[in-house]
């Protein structure tokens, strides 16, 4: 007669099966845990190194209501089939009616925004996810192209997309291209992207070599580029950033965008 606590071959096999099951469960959950921790850390490291280029005071806006009945708006509608309420204010088409608008020197130039956007998003650093590009429109809307997409290449197509977004009539196609936030101030942007330091690139700022500026950056820096043809940043931008000048001569927004994107790419990817 065997004792009740004697280990039989059947009991030994059962214990071994339970032991293997426990090891499997432990390994399954521990692997998932460490993988989650690793992925989270990699994401955090990616965010720590993320640079943000803000095309600030961007000269892209819907045609003001006071110009809807203007002859220039009617001509655009006849030529392109776009109703006045969905037209983007453009100096090339609406200049005859723009004389009474306030702050006219910074308005009506969507091409400035478009060129600056294309120069920044056509780069390896943007494709790598280490550069975020933001259009901060005059009405406060924040429009940011997603890293896996390419913004419209032609100005007409770009204006059509911007009109839908600014009118609040964007559909799935526009949302697939852009991340959209409404009515944000420049200070809101810095908080939203958790920026450590903001630099506004203006010829009225302190002179510095662009390469030295990029090399000296903190973990998360935002660079504000003027999205207008003439004039200077609004006071809020100057008060919430360090004005820096990278050239003694005035530079077009797309030139600044291209030079900045290259120096950031050279610093981080090369």
Write the layout of secondary structure elements.
Layout: H1 9-48, E1 51-58, H2 71-80, H3 91-94, H4 110-121, H5 124-127, E2 131-137, E3 142-145, H6 155-166, H7 172-177, E4 178-181, H8 186-192, E5 197-207, H9 210-215, E6 221-226, H10 235-239, E7 242-245, H11 253-268
Parallel strand pairs: 1-2, 1-6, 5-6, 5-7
Antiparallel strand pairs: 2-3, 3-4
What do you see in this structure?
By secondary structure, the chain is of the alpha/beta class. It has a single domain, classed as SPOUT methyltransferase, trefoil knot domain (Alpha/beta knot, 3-Layer(aba) Sandwich), CATH 3.40.1280.10. 45% of the residues lie in helices and 16% in strands. A seven-stranded mixed sheet has the order 4-3-2-1-6-5-7, sandwiched between helices. The longest helix is centred in the first third of the chain and has 40 residues, at 9-48. The chain starts with 8 loop residues before the first helix and ends with a helix. Mean pLDDT is 88; it is low at 37-47.
Overall average residue pLDDT: 88
* Biggest beta sheet attributes: 7 strands, mixed
Q: What's the gyration radius in Å?
A: 27 Å
Q: Report the helical percentage.
A: 40-55%
CATH architecture designation? 3-Layer(aba) Sandwich
CATH topology: Alpha/beta knot
Succession of helices and strands: HEHHHHEEHHEHEHEHEH
Q: What structural class should be given to the helix and strand makeup?
A: alpha/beta
Distance between the termini: 78 Å
Report the principal-axis shape. Answer: extended
Low-confidence stretches: 37-47
How much of the sequence lies in strands comes to: 15-25%
Distinct helical segment count? 11
Multimerization status: single chain
What is the domain tally? Answer: 1
CATH class: Alpha Beta
Give the beta-strand count.
Answer: 7
The CATH superfamily is identified as SPOUT methyltransferase, trefoil knot domain
How are the strands ordered across the major sheet?
Answer: 4-3-2-1-6-5-7
